[in-house]
Specification:
Keywords: Membrane, Transmembrane, Transmembrane helix
Largest sheet: none
Mean pLDDT: 74
Protein name: PGG domain-containing protein
Structural class: mainly alpha
Pfam family, one: PGG
Strand content: under 5%
Low-confidence stretches: 1-8, 161-168, 327-391, 395-399
Number of helices: 26
Order of helices and strands: HHHHHHHHHHHHHHHHHHHHHHHHHH
Organism: Zea mays
Length: about 700
């Protein structure tokens, strides 16, 4: 990537997409953890002790632990939103040449990232606290992390400056892969640690208290402890990997650093395996079978590697035999072969150079497809005449360049859509019956009994989205199907399936479902109006500028490249925001009623928060629905170049992104608690975080300007 102004790019900027992914996933898990706190929630109300259904159990059993978890989780959530905003601002400033502001924003970004990860660790420690073992182990690991970082920073400050090797593509690709691995490992272990395997007790019986893990103290107590130790180890190791990949000052010894990172990766993977084996079953033989699967997979991989190596060795020997045969039979064979193959070889090499330049231009430029089309028509004719089969691949890329540039994001969207629809199918909205009845059995969906049509609408829409996501994953890997518009059809079907499932499963009446679906249409109408009114003047003067300015095409090409970069960042945010809000809308905070409430007239399967505080639930529902429909509309717009280019240039999609962030924050404040005072604290916390960011930006800017003057 070009470096405007010749400035050096920091680790944070070079990994901005992965920082955005990390911050969004942290926001995802903290958003869900705020609605489903550790220890569970009360299923029934008890007016005698001033208890309401849906309140966190640990709020009554261990208030200090609840406050520690709640505010640490909220701080991590708010910090993640700030990181998202900072990364987007940083990218826009860099693209527009605002180099002066990059250094202050990078300093703020580092500080907020540290606060984000520390808050996440604090929330995990408070949420997983159950006994002496969990407390001591969490404290020891936390102290070990702090000591490790302090020692490495001290050693790095004394060591000579390491050579900058960021130009190497292989280490950079490895760094990005490790960032993805550590990000997903941290998010998975955070959620698993707060929701213990087997669930939690919601009443006192046989010596246990409400909020205690069901496996604690019984025959599976050792299994629960093994799960906690392995899961916590994987969580802390993944955080250490993230810190080491983001902090270049820890690179005092490249060799030692590589060994440490690979060691932490091995610890993370082994701990994930141990946590899954301990928590996914209750029998020793089943645990052994699960662990043996890893060995079987490793053996299969080794067998495949051996076959590939043998095949390559045999093919190499065959080529050597074919090339050496004429030399042994005729001493002049080499001269004859050089004379006959020389022109063909030079012509093929020229074709390969032209093709590489063409491919490189297609991958690096982010704009005018028509210019590439003309160039490819000029260069493809000699390639075709020489029998070069790569021309068809270039033609396939030419058919749909927008999808080729966003293959990884399309794959991410399809993967996450498959994950959330899979979970929604297993845990349908409305919950499951806890006992047998005349028209249902234990474990049947409550919504299927109370509203069969709505449940079937949700079920089929969710299933269509799930299957379309799997099809999209396969189509992304199969490039030959792109020009048949099969991938676009699968993605559109996936998105509309998500909209239908959300509208059917997130509410219980037709009018609310219509309002929810109308939000997506309202977003599209707003974007069209915004683009039409704000680009009208530009269209009127475009022809005059094109005739007067000889460098108009060059400026247009540069502007289109910046538009493509912004599209990828907005698409990444929209994909992950849709993931957050889809799950929260189908499983609202506080859970569902397991029986009819004659006092309020609510039925089984209705949201507990709706039964207790209808206004608060309405605020949560519409904030969450606005964010979800905004995200889906953004994804639809960002896939089509004819739609997203004018929308990005007019900042219409930036306005939608800001509205989506505000909706997520409003939904979190309304749904994470049923107490007005705590909701006010959330908004105060958000204001404090934003004020701190502005203050730090001003401080770093002053420091940067003083250094520049000196």
């Amino acid at each position: 990537m070009a470096k405007p102004g010749g400035s050096d790019e920091s680790w944070e900027y070079s990994l901005r997409k992965y920082l955005l992914l990390l911050a969004t996933l942290v926001a995802t898990v903290t958003y869900g953890a705020g609605f489903n706190p550790p220890g569970g929630v009360w299923q029934t109300a008890d007016p005698a002790v001033d208890r309401i259904a849906g309140d966190p159990i640990i709020r009554d059993t261990n208030y200090a632990r609840y406050l520690s978890f709640f505010y640490s989780n909220a701080t991590a959530f708010a910090s993640s939103l700030v990181v998202i905003v900072l990364v987007l601002i940083l990218s826009v400033l860099h693209d527009n040449g605002g180099i002066t502001m990059l250094a202050p924003l990078l300093g703020v970004l580092r500080a907020v990232m540290v606060l984000d990860l520390l808050s996440l660790m604090g929330a995990y420690a408070a949420g997983t606290f159950r006994d002496t073992l969990t407390a001591v182990y969490s404290l020891v690991l936390s102290a070990g992390v702090v000591a490790y970082l302090v020692a490495h920073l001290a050693l790095a400050s004394r060591a000579p400056a390491a050579e900058d090797k960021r130009g190497q593509s292989a280490p950079e690709r490895l760094r990005k892969v490790l960032m993805l691995l550590a990000t997903f490992a941290a998010s998975v272990t955070y959620v698993a640690g707060l929701s213990a395997p087997g669930g939690f007790w919601d009443h006192s019986e046989d010596g246990h208290r409400p909020g205690d893990a069901i496996l604690k103290g019984g025959p599976h107590d050792a299994r629960l402890k093994a799960f906690f130790v392995c899961n916590t180890t994987a969580f802390v190791a993944s955080l250490l990997i993230l810190v080491m990949l983001l902090e270049k000052k820890l690179c005092f010894s490249q060799k030692v650093r590589s060994y440490e990172i690979y060691g932490f990766i091995a610890v993370t993977l082994i701990s994930l395996l141990g946590a899954y084996a301990a928590g996914s079953s209750r029998q020793i033989d089943t645990t052994i079978y699960v662990s043996a699967l890893v060995g079987a997979v490793a053996v299969c991989i080794l067998i495949q590697v051996v076959f590939v190596l043998l095949f390559q060795a045999n093919s190499t020997e065959g080529q050597q035999t074919r090339t050496q045969g004429p030399l042994t039979n005729n001493g002049n064979g080499s001269d004859e072969r050089q004379q006959t193959q020389g022109p063909q070889t030079s012509m093929d090499s020229n074709d390969r150079d032209e093709q590489q330049q063409q491919t490189h231009g297609l991958q690096t430029s982010d704009d005018n497809v028509s210019d590439h089309h003309q160039q490819q028509q000029q260069t493809q004719s000699p390639q075709t005449s020489n029998g070069n089969g790569n021309a068809s691949d270039e033609h396939e890329k030419q058919q749909n360049p927008a999808l080729e540039k966003a293959r990884s994001l399309v794959l991410l969207l399809a993967t996450l859509a498959a994950a959330i629809t899979y979970q929604a199918g297993l845990n349908p909205p409305g919950g499951l019956w806890q006992s047998n009845g005349r028209l249902y059995k234990i474990g049947d969906p409550i919504l299927l009994t109370t509203n069969p049509r709505r449940y079937k609408a949700f079920y089929y829409c969710n299933s269509v989205a799930f299957v379309a996501s799997l099809v999209a994953v396969m189509l992304v890997r199969k490039k030959t199907l792109h020009h048949h518009n099969a991938l676009e059809a699968a993605m559109v079907l996936d998105l509309f399936g998500l909209i239908g499932a959300y509208a059917a499963g997130s509410c219980r009446d037709v009018s609310t479902s219509i309002y929810a679906m109308a939000l997506a249409g309202a977003v599209l109408v707003y974007v069209v109006i915004h683009v039409v009114f704000l680009t009208l003047d530009e269209k009127d003067g475009s022809s005059a500028r094109r005739n007067d300015d000889a460098s108009f095409e060059e400026r247009e090409k540069k502007e289109a490249g910046l538009v493509e970069k912004r599209r990828k960042r907005l698409l990444l945010f929209a994909i992950l925001a849709a993931t957050i809000t889809y799950q929260a809308g189908l499983t609202p905070p506080g859970g569902f009623l397991v029986q009819d409430d004659n006092r309020t007239g609510r039925h089984a399967g209705d949201a507990v928060l709706l039964n207790n505080y209808p206004r608060r639930y309405t605020a949560f529902f519409y904030c969450n629905s606005v964010s979800f429909m905004l995200s889906i509309a953004l994804i639809i717009l960002l896939v089509n170049p004819n739609l997203y280019r004018p929308a990005i240039r007019s900042n219409a999609l930036s306005v939608c992104t800001a509205a989506g962030l505000i909706g997520i924050m409003g939904g979190y404040a309304a749904g994470c608690t049923q107490h007005l005072k705590t909701s006010i604290y959330i908004f105060v916390l958000a204001a404090v975080v934003l004020s701190t960011v502005v203050f730090l930006a001003a401080v770093f800017l002053v420091i940067h300007l003083r250094k520049k003057r000196r």
